[in-house]
Specification:
heterodimer, A: 396 residues, mainly beta, AttH-like fold, 2 domains, 13-stranded antiparallel β-sheet, ten-stranded antiparallel β-sheet, 51% strand, globular, B: 850 residues, alpha+beta, six-stranded mixed barrel, 21 strands, 15% strand, elongated
């Protein structure tokens, strides 16, 4: 019965259903998401207009501990191995990078940080703690514009910071503007933190040729490179809610450049080692895409008094004994080495203290604490060290 | 089986009947369609506006859970650094926002200044990860991003420069890139966003060192601990609010406005219901004999009831579908008007496209079909309930209604009184106002048949004198067929009264605003920067410009105004700081005040609130208001309430000296200048304008110019209402047309008898036109008192309950004349076709066929 009504009713239902379906498909609660597409970069190469490291120069302190705007890239790199009273070992890395966004134009750009919000300087912080006993590696990256007081680098008073991560001078009597004590303070979001005081124990090392370090063939493919190879370090580390008093020693690299790598250079392996006999060793090798080692590979052996012995590419022999495949990125990094430096009578067995010390941040690399053992002129020795490896990304 | 066939036959006969009366059928569908379309279009417009608002809020708020705001809109940027470095609050982002226009596009953009490096947790389209080139974006050059489709509309591509006007200042912004929306929702959400860097925004809005707010994401767990940690870092005057409560407050501003539009649209549907009732009654009455025969042949009451309801359902369904389709089309235009009004009155909103939600369409379908069934139920019941023998005689129905006249009117009176009683319910709200309105309309319509009989007594001799026997006959005809004519007239009355009610309401409103503006605008020249929301002074005058204008020759004195949004214990409110001293009393008309208010307000922590503010927040003289100032949360006593029709949100007014004590803000939103006596103000305005050439672009208007501009904005905000009224008029017109035309067509047999008895075609024409004309006059006259009653409720109940305004009730005779005229013209037009048809027809045929 009531066929008419049913007919109308059905028709009505179908229409409603249609509207409903259309509604469901056209107006679901999609998230607001978008990307940005930008204009093609204009003008010449990336490095045009920036200052370049073209030859040895005279350094003036404290200014040269500070920022060098005009150069595209600069970093203040701290690594160290720290021990609790019970001998529990921690590695740490704390780095602040300065990146200049545009070539300098006039005086305004000579500032390393802007007064207003606008700036040509971008600061990045990388911070990692390696808990050797627990084989746990925590790390975090932080960005900020070098403006509005959020991040910057300055010498008066000496301070390099990305928000609440900072390196600053502690004024102690009897120490010069070239050689002074520092405090490093940083905390990750999950609470892991360091609060360390660092005092240089050896004079400042000017790496390469009087601090001018060539990295490639091209004119200006070089950096200015300064190091404190051994800094007495005291302070505290917090990890997983535990605060621990620690002592140990740190290593500082301060380097600035506009273009470091040549075309065809893929990455580097960078060793910084403090030996139990008071010697410190810096050695890096630049790797070419074909797997060979670049001729611009250099290093330095610093004796206990702070005298530098320059090491060239032929002076150091490295054999990779083992490697580790990162489950995070799929990159395969060397993990064990034998290093032979006949010039210094030095043979070292090096291995990462545990595998997973990869930094999977906006740039992917490996920064790990090392176990060090070996002989120098027949004398047994041990030590602490760090290895930095870049350019091991899976080819895309 | 047998049952089925008989039902089919009945249904076929129904269809046949409807098809044989196509005018009637079409007009009744049109009645439903019009009612439904008005409801649909208003609903869709409101919904689209709401959705657009929600979307752009979502885009701009991002995932922020809380916001930190300053006391007078501005927040010291050091607060952000402190929060970030000392507070280590990682999920925080600075925001500088404002409004501006991009030349080449007729809409206001939200200009959002952000730090892309802090944006990742908040707005992914604004973060560095989304692909923003920092070397182009944060380095101080003025660059910005708009959505891809906006760039396409502007015919710009990355690298091109666009001209952006902010508060009267023109800026060149290079398009650094485009935002590619990931989906359609994002596309709509981003369509009025211009994304710039914090530094760029600070330059654009002259806000160096300041932020608009800081966005935060606080975890659900430990939110309280975080809040107290953050609060410790904040200087006095800053406050943290939940983001959703902020956007809720903004959305709430237009709620009363939207509700009223909705209610007015329902009025159109109500008129439509009367039309359906009229149609169904007519069709039942006309088939009385057929129904009688069917009943005599054994068709049951239920079958009759069902078949009539089925017919109604068909009309309702067709009308609804048509109405929804028409409504969607109408909404395309209406949404622009609604958006314009919201932009003028409340907040910046851009609705580029209609969003057709399921809910408004379903609601309209339900309303359309439901209203049809309800309206058709009584006629259907009437048809099915009648005794077989009486149904066969038509006169019985007429005698029945004449016996019922008094009880019907009594019942109507009771319903009307009930409607009045609804108004007495305390805190009844706007809804109660509309319920009361509905009751009064229904009550009044029930009294109409009795009134028609009375009116006929007056009209008969009158028409006799004017038009002889035919005049008398035509009046008689109205009464003798009261069962049909009264319904038709009632429908007309309601339809016309609705237009009268809304018309009188708008006139009262406008009249009040005009006379208020006259009193309010005392100075000779007013200077304002262009603002994003017309009724709010949300931009700043450049101090240099103010100095320049003040020192113009022939300016005798001047005072400034500052208008800011502040946080009070009632939410975000508009605070106006006025520089005038005691002489302000000439400007402000007070509804209530304490003694010596004007002497006190320059030295004491007291404020004046507007009537709308007092109503909205239920505060009165002597109450305290807590305002978050740069000196902390401060209590101010309300010592005056002023009339103010500029904002239905309401304003708080205080003296500038007091404001300066509590706020660090020294900006100026508007400047009023007084000319030296005897100076031609228009010439002064011209000179002032010349002085500002090449500087900040500002509106410099004479007293008269500003008044006209304000009234123009007022009129613009009422355009929607006026459109609705027009729609109601159209519904009414079609209603009158359909009801009366049907009535006359149905009488073709009677008219044929008249013709057969010697009436000439001319006389017949005269007869039909006179009768419809009389009905039109009756409806017109009756619609006046009902219309005024409706206007009264709209002005004194609904407006008051929506906005809290005291309006002067003003009846423009023109509105009334228009209504009566409308009824008569429609009625006469309705008579044209039937009378022509009848006059031309061969009486013998007419007698034979029907």
């Amino acid at each position: 019965m009531k066929k008419g009504i049913r007919y109308i009713f059905n028709l009505f239902l179908i229409v409603l259903l249609g509207i409903g379906l259309w509604y469901v498909f056209s107006d679901n609660k999609e998230k607001i998401e978008a990307s940005v597409s930008v204009a093609e970069a204009m003008g010449g190469g990336d490095q045009e207009g920036y200052l370049r490291a073209t030859g040895p120069r005279e350094f003036i302190f404290p200014d040269d501990h500070g920022p060098h705007p005009g150069f595209k890239t600069e970093w203040w790199y701290y690594t160290g191995n720290l021990f609790t009273e019970n001998g529990r070992q921690f590695g740490y890395q704390f780095t602040i990078f300065r990146n200049q966004l545009n070539p300098p134009e006039g005086d305004a750009d000579s500032l390393a940080y802007g007064k207003d919000w606008n700036t040509n300087q971008l600061y990045l912080g990388h911070f990692a703690i390696a808990d050797v006993q627990a084989e746990e590696h925590v790390f975090e990256e932080r960005y900020s514009r070098g403006a509005a007081g959020l991040a910057g680098a300055q010498t008066e008073p000496y301070r390099i910071w990305v928000e609440d991560w900072e390196i600053k001078r502690i004024d102690s009597i009897g120490i010069s503007d070239k050689n002074f004590a520092l405090q490093i303070k940083a905390a990750m979001e999950d609470g892991a933190s360091v609060d360390l005081n660092l005092i240089p124990q050896k004079p400042l090392i000017l790496q390469g040729e009087q601090g001018y370090d060539r990295k490639g063939e091209g004119e200006g493919n070089a950096s200015y490179y300064l190091s404190f190879t051994r800094m007495q370090t005291n302070g505290s580390i917090s990890i997983n809610g535990n605060q621990l008093e620690v002592t140990g020693s740190s290593w500082m690299d301060h380097e600035w450049s506009t273009s470091a790598l040549d075309e065809g250079q893929e990455g580097w392996d960078w060793f910084s080692i403090q030996l139990s006999n008071g010697y410190d060793l810096m050695y890096y090798q630049l790797r070419n895409e074909d797997g060979s080692v670049s001729q611009f590979t250099t290093g330095a052996l610093i004796d206990p008094q702070g005298e530098k012995i320059l090491l060239g590419p032929g002076d150091v022999n490295i054999e990779v004994l083992d490697s580790w495949l990162s489950p995070h990125t799929g990159s395969e990094y060397p993990s064990e080495w034998r290093m032979n430096i006949p010039k210094a009578g030095l043979i070292l067995d090096l291995a990462t203290l545990f595998d997973d010390q990869e930094m999977a941040v906006s740039v992917q690399y490996y920064e790990g604490t090392l176990s060090v053992s070996g002989r120098m002129n027949g004398e047994q020795l041990s030590g602490n060290g760090f290895i930095e490896m870049t350019g091991y990304e899976e080819d895309e | 089986m047998k049952n089925k066939t008989s039902n089919n036959l009945l249904w076929l006969s129904s269809i046949r009947f409807l098809l044989r009366h196509p005018w009637h059928f079409v007009l009744s569908i049109l009645g439903v369609a019009l009612g439904v379309s008005v409801v649909v279009s208003i609903d869709l417009s409101n919904n689209s506006a709401k959705k657009a608002f929600a979307l752009s809020t979502e885009a701009v708020t991002g995932k922020a859970t809380h916001q930190i705001m300053g006391a007078a809109e501005n927040l010291d940027e050091n607060v952000y650094r402190k929060l970030r470095i000392e507070g280590k609050i990682r999920k925080s982002a600075p925001v500088v926002k404002g409004y501006g226009r991009i030349s080449g596009m007729n809409k206001t953009f939200q200009i959002l200044g952000v730090d892309p490096l802090a944006e990742t947790p908040f707005r992914d389209f604004a973060s560095q990860q989304s692909g923003i080139e920092l070397d182009d974006f944060i380095t101080g050059e003025k660059t910005g991003l708009v959505a891809q489709h906006v760039a396409d509309q502007l015919q710009l591509s990355a690298g091109d420069t666009m001209t952006v006007s902010v508060g009267g200042r023109t800026q060149l912004i290079r398009l650094s890139g485009v935002i590619k929306a990931g989906n359609d929702r994002s596309r709509r959400a981003l369509e009025n966003v211009l994304l710039v860097d914090v530094s760029t925004a600070q330059q654009m809005f002259n806000m160096q060192g300041q932020l608009s707010r800081i966005d935060l994401i606080l975890p659900d767990k430990g939110e309280q601990a975080m809040l107290s940690r953050i609060n410790r870092l904040l200087p006095q005057g800053t406050s943290i609010t939940r983001s959703d409560s902020r956007s809720e407050t903004v959305a709430q501003m237009s709620r009363a406005f939207e509700f009223n539009l909705q209610a007015l649209s329902m009025l159109a549907l109500l008129v439509g219901m009367f039309l359906i009732y009229n149609t169904m009654t007519f069709s039942v009455v006309q088939r009385r004999q057929l129904i009688g025969r069917l009943r005599a042949l054994g068709t049951t009451k239920n079958e009759i009831l069902t078949i009539i309801l089925k017919e109604a359902l068909l009309i309702g369904f067709l009308g609804t579908v048509l109405g929804i389709i028409a409504g969607i089309f109408m909404a395309q235009g209406l949404v622009k008007l609604v958006t314009q009004s919201i932009n003028d009155l409340y907040f910046v909103l851009s609705v580029q496209e209609l969003s057709i939600g399921l809910f408004p369409v379903a609601k309209a379908a339900l309303l359309g079909i439901g209203a049809t069934i309800i309206a058709a139920f009584w006629p259907a019941r009437e048809a099915s309930q009648a005794d077989v023998s009486t149904v066969l005689r038509r006169s019985s129905n007429e005698s029945k209604i004449s016996r019922r006249l008094l009880p019907l009117a009594g019942f109507g009176l009771i319903i009307g009184l009930l409607g009045g009683a609804v108004l007495l319910i305390p805190n009844g709200g706007i809804a109660a106002g509309y319920v009361s309105l509905l009751f009064m309309i229904v009550g009044f319509s029930l009294m109409i048949p009795l009134i028609i009989v009375w009116m006929a007594m007056v009209f008969r001799p009158l028409m006799g004198k004017l038009n002889g026997i035919i005049g008398k006959m035509s009046v008689r005809g109205v009464v003798t067929e009261l069962s049909r004519t009264s319904v038709a007239i009632a429908a007309l009355v309601v339809a016309v009264a609705a237009t009268v009610g809304v018309g009188v309401m708008v006139d009262s409103f406008r009249g009040t605003v005009v006379s208020w503006l006259e009193a309010q605008l005392q100075a000779d020249v007013y200077v304002q920067p262009p603002s994003a929301v017309s009724r709010k002074a949300d931009a700043k005058l450049e101090p240099k410009l103010v100095e320049l204008l003040k020192e113009t020759e022939d300016v005798s004195r001047w005072h400034t105004v500052r208008s800011v949004d502040v946080q009070t214990n009632y939410g975000t409110d508009q605070l106006v700081a006025i520089e005038q001293g005691v002489e302000a009393q000439e400007t402000y008309q007070l509804k209530a005040s304490s003694e010596n208010f004007w002497q006190q307000y320059m030295v004491k922590d007291i404020v004046m609130i507007s009537e709308a503010y007092a109503y909205r927040n239920n505060v009165s003289l002597g109450d305290s208001l807590l305002i978050t100032t740069d000196r902390g949360r401060q209590s101010f006593t309300i010592e005056a309430i002023n009339f103010d029709y500029a904002s239905d949100i309401g304003t708080i007014t205080m003296n500038r000296d007091i404001y300066n004590q509590y706020f660090d803000d020294r900006a100026i939103s508007g400047l009023a200048l007084y000319a030296v006596d005897g100076i031609n103000v228009d010439q002064l305005v011209e000179r002032l304008r010349n002085k500002t050439q090449g500087k900040q672009e500002v509106f410099i208007r004479s007293n008269k110019g500003l008044r006209e501009a304000s009234i123009a904005i007022f009129d613009r905000t009422f355009t929607v209402t006026i459109v609705l009224r027009m729609l109601a008029i159209i519904v009414a017109f079609i209603g009158i047309l359909s009801a009366l035309m049907a009535l006359q067509l149905e009488r073709s047999r009677e008219l044929a008898v008249l013709r057969a008895n010697g009436m000439t075609p001319g006389q017949l024409w005269n007869y039909v036109i006179s009768q419809t004309g009389i009905m039109g006059v009756m409806a017109g006259i009756l619609s006046v008192p009902l219309g005024i009653l409706m206007a009264y409720i709209l002005v004194y109940v609904i407006n008051l309950r929506s906005f809290g305004w005291t309006l002067q009730f003003m009846i423009d005779p023109q509105v009334l004349l228009q209504a009566v005229g409308l009824a008569i013209v429609a009625a006469l037009l309705a008579g044209l076709y039937p009378s022509r048809k009848m006059a031309q027809a061969n009486p013998a045929d007419a007698l034979r066929n029907d």
